[in-house]
Amino acid sequence: MDVVLVKPLTFMNRSGRAVLELVRHYELEPVDLLVVSDDTTLPLGSLRMRPEGSAGGHNGLRSIEESLGGPDYPRMRLGVGNAEMDRWPLEDFVLDVFREDEQPVVEDLLDYAADAARLWIVEDLESAVARFNRRVSLDAE
Fold it and tell me: Structural domain tally of the chain?
């Protein structure tokens, strides 16, 4: 099985263009994708995988939905937290660096997400969802 890792060079809110080109170039179906995105509605360190779903206010996912013609594509959402959203415009929050005390949580989340993606590749999405979906308690932050 061939696997292609793509990081679009487009602006996030236009990432659907890049995904559509990928789907066309490799003659893929949306179900063949695993779109990974940040999620400010999930606590820092959380991971949620689903076979489809709404954009949930995420402009990048909305762009992908528009380009693919619907929300039926697998996605992995990585919780970046929102505890300080009252002090930040959303754009500044998601583009800022993580605080030093958040770094270990972020590094753990990235390792965890890579393991989840590997299982999705080797087995299937359902196995990855069953094993890797996790919600970190707000008290743990």
Answer: 1
